[in-house]
Design brief:
The complex is a heterodimer. Chain A is an alpha/beta fold. Chain A has 14 helices and 14 strands. In chain A, the strands form 5 sheets. In chain A, strands 10-9-11-8-12 form a 5-stranded mixed β-sheet, sandwiched between helices. Chain A has a 3-stranded parallel β-sheet with strand order 4-1-5. A two-stranded antiparallel sheet of chain A has the order 2-3. In chain A, helix 3 packs across helix 9 and helix 3 packs across helix 13. Chain A is globular. About 3% of the residues of chain A have low confidence. By secondary structure, chain B is an alpha+beta fold. In chain B, strand 6 and strand 7 form a beta hairpin. The chains are: A alpha/beta, B alpha+beta. Chains A and B meet through helix 4, helix 5, strand 9, helix 6 and strand 10 of A and helix 5 and helix 11 of B. The structure holds glutathione (GSH).
């Protein structure tokens, strides 16, 4: 009797879950609209930046494009909203967009108190400083008494307070709402140093009046794992974004690129066959088609390709893979298997 | 019992209590109030529910959590270890500072512009008109950025500071000046100053009485000025010179010691002042034009000069017209000071409704507090202006 009852209960629960799993409200809305709404930065080279034609480019933008490719087989089915660091979480929460992909550091506070879920670490970063070449500053520890410019609403202003406070160093902070103003204040000599994520420093350096008159200091004072975020409460949507990125990392690890994808469709490697949807129904489980990952890789590329194209050797930033290399190459990028 | 009969005759024909207009009025007002309270209550609890469901933190305890960020300009001691409630205080004081200074300067400049617009001198009045048109038609944010971005590059870097006798330094980090360093006994100087001011006021009152009685006015301005200056000076020496000067000196990246005025404060103050002064100028002009011509003609028939006419006859009457719109300019200036975030001046909106909000995510609470504070500032400002208006309004004798 008891077992019969629990069997019925389990069956009922299974029906209920099956119902719940049948769809993601966000995905349904995105499909109905015909485009994905993505929140990006006001303009940060390599991450999310409009080019001369007004098209958005960058690693963060490619995450949006990959999600759109997986859903619509069209990486351009995205509407971008530029947000300042300060506004981004409120904008995501209030539904201005469904995916925040804007060089955003994953922190516990943001994860547990802001009603957000971070899906992946798309770029492992740390906070650095840039100073004038002739200033005689060779290390962060030489900055005692300095005036430091940065952007408000960032982890940056917290880290700098932690670092200078715990090292007993004095400083004066100037926090600007927009990066452009912070940079121009630094450029015109109002501050001795500008601080942000190190990747952002390489991007910023290119915007200064004389890039070569500025040097990025060697130290990193914090961990800045950057990643996309979605609203809490739509687990299926969160899964979709998470596995879109993992598909790109797995593709790199398996040697599948946008160039060789057609040959790879004939691969006998079971891992590749599962990734490309030849075996299994992973795409359907996400609410997508079987070939979801093929769409992503063909239209946007694997992780290595988007890295090199946006911030690496194929870009003006020339950032080395470093911590963002695959785990198999001594880096930290590591995606769980598709099986 | 004829009295009672009379009362019954005068009273409206007695009807049911719901027909009593007074009672009905009270009941309807009570219902309206109840509805409003209920509406706000449901809105607040709905919002709280929705926030809980979306996994966002709610409640007020965040105010007592460590803020964790520094603030570049503060009037009271503050470090990153202090709490969000302290951020609120720092930001509020900065807002009050910039608004107070802005209101004082914009009023001065605005009156000058308004009077200049009515000047019989063609060039002066045209220039004032051009000022008003030009300044009003450029958005305030542009003025702020313009002053800031124009100011910084022309100021010299620290190592090449412009100095005035090695005591005052001007650099792109700010204007550095010697600071008064108070030691024991310095309080007597303040008391002497206050006594000087009180005596000066008394002198003026006495001088006015004498003028009315004898037609001659003693030199009260001179006496008052002497009292205000000499009493504190005497106290300074009597107390054994308890105040010394602390000079700014170059140390590493910047000047240390002394007192400094940041370029952000100056740029913001400049922009708010010239912008609001254009509006105040127009208010002053229309206020003066609103005083009937006969007043000023009568005054000139009495032999008063243009300055005396304005000061003694026209402006006091114009104030009645000027004050209400002037009050709303003061409120505008206070609210506009929140554009400070663009140039990193840490006002209330920038640090509390900006950084604290972003770091804690408690948008509803923080915006409610901020709105309540601005509302309070506005109410106090209008209250003070109303009192002033009451004092200066026409007194029928
Ligand atoms: N990763 C940090 C900082 C993010 C951030 O806002 N960085 C700035 C400077 S690199 C930026 O993206 N500016 C570009 C913009 O505001 O559009 C965080 O999440 O708080």
């Amino acid at each position: 009797m008891k077992t019969a009852l629990s069997a019925v209960l389990i069956a009922a629960a299974a029906v209920a879950t099956a119902h719940a799993q049948s769809g993601s409200p966000t995905l349904e809305k995105v499909k109905k609209d015909g485009y994905l709404k993505c929140g990006v930065s006001d303009g940060l080279a390599g991450f999310s930046n409009p080019d001369a034609q007004g098209n958005w480019t960058g690693i963060d933008v490619d995450v949006c494009r990959a999600v759109a490719a997986a859903i619509f087989d069209d990486p351009n089915a995205v509407r971008y909203t530029a947000t300042t660091a300060k506004e981004r979480f409120t904008a995501l929460q209030s539904g201005e967009f469904d995916l925040l992909s804007r060089n955003t550091t994953i922190t516990m506070q943001r994860d547990v108190a802001l009603g957000l879920e971070f899906t992946n670490v798309t770029y492992y970063d740390g906070q650095g400083f840039i100073v004038k070449a002739g200033s005689g500053v060779a290390s962060v520890n030489d900055l005692n008494g300095a005036t430091i410019c940065t952007q408000s609403g960032t982890t940056t202003e917290l880290n700098v307070a932690d670092y200078f406070g715990s090292h007993g160093m004095q400083y004066q902070i100037l926090t600007f709402e927009k990066e452009a103003e912070a940079l121009s204040a630094y450029d015109s000599g109002r501050c001795d140093a500008y601080t942000t994520d190190q990747s952002g420093l390489y991007a910023a350096r290119l915007e200064l009046s004389d890039a070569n008159a500025n040097v990025v200091l060697p130290e990193l004072i914090s961990k800045e794992p950057l990643g996309p975020a979605v609203r809490q409460g739509d687990d299926r949507w969160e899964d979709l974004v998470r596995w879109t990125f993992y598909a790109m990392v797995n593709a790199e690890e398996l040697g599948v690129t946008s160039q060789n994808i057609d040959e790879q469709l004939n691969s006998q490697n079971p891992e590749i066959r599962r990734l490309l949807g030849i075996e299994g129904d992973f795409g359907e489980q996400l609410g997508l088609t079987k070939d979801w990952a093929v769409r992503i890789i063909r239209k946007v590329g694997n992780y290595g390709e988007i890295f090199e194209r946006n911030v690496g050797s194929g870009s003006p930033l020339q950032i080395a893979r470093g911590k963002n290399a695959l785990w198999t190459n001594g880096g930290l990028q590591y995606a769980p298997p598709i099986r | 019992m004829s009295g009672q009969d009379e009362a019954a005759a005068i009273a409206p024909p007695s009807t049911a209590f719901w027909a009593d207009p007074r009672l009905r009025g009270i009941v309807f007002q009570a219902i309206a109030l109840g509805l409003v309270v209920w509406l706000f209550w449901t809105m607040a609890s709905n919002a709280a529910d929705a926030l809980k469901r979306s996994g966002q933190a709610t409640g007020w305890s965040f105010l007592w959590n460590t803020a964790g960020f520094d603030i570049g300009f503060k009037l009271v001691p503050y470090t990153a270890r202090d709490r969000h409630i302290d951020v609120l205080v720092v930001g509020l004081l900065n807002t009050l500072l910039i608004s107070g200074l802005g209101i004082a300067l914009a009023t001065l400049l605005g009156f000058v512009i308004g009077i200049a617009r009515l000047s019989p001198n063609w060039l002066v009045s045209r220039m004032a008109a051009a000022y008003v048109e030009f300044v009003r038609n450029v958005p305030l944010l542009l003025w702020i950025l313009f002053f800031y971005l124009a100011l910084i590059p022309v100021l010299p870097p620290v190592k090449q500071a412009l100095s005035l006798g090695d005591t005052v330094f001007l650099t792109n980090r700010g204007l550095y000046m010697p600071k008064l360093h108070w030691t024991d006994g310095a309080g007597s100087i303040v008391w002497a100053l206050l006594a000087g001011i009180a005596l000066a006021v008394a002198t003026t009152i006495w001088a006015r009485r004498r003028q009315r009685a004898t037609g001659k006015r003693p030199p009260d301005l001179l006496i008052g000025f002497a009292l205000i200056v000499l009493l504190p000076v005497a106290a300074f020496f009597a107390a054994g010179a308890p105040v010394s000067l602390e000079f700014p000196t170059l140390k590493g990246f910047n000047f240390a010691g002394g007192m400094s005025i940041l370029p952000e404060l100056v740029a913001l103050l400049f922009a708010l002042t010239i912008y609001t002064a254009a509006y105040i100028g127009e208010i002053v002009r229309s206020g003066i034009e609103g005083v009937s011509k006969g007043q000023s003609e009568a005054a000139s028939a009495l032999g008063l000069s243009r300055g005396q006419r304005l000061r003694l006859v026209v402006i006091p009457q114009a104030m009645r017209i000027i004050i209400p719109p002037l009050t709303s300019q003061y409120l505008n200036l206070t609210k506009n000071s929140s554009l400070a975030a663009a140039i990193a001046f840490p006002d209330l909106v920038h640090v509390f409704a900006g950084t604290s909000l972003n770091q804690t995510g408690q948008a509803l609470e923080i915006l409610a507090i901020t709105a309540a504070i601005y509302l309070t500032i506005s109410l106090v400002t209008s209250g003070l202006m109303n009192i002033y208006n009451h004092m200066t309004r026409l007194k029928e004798r």
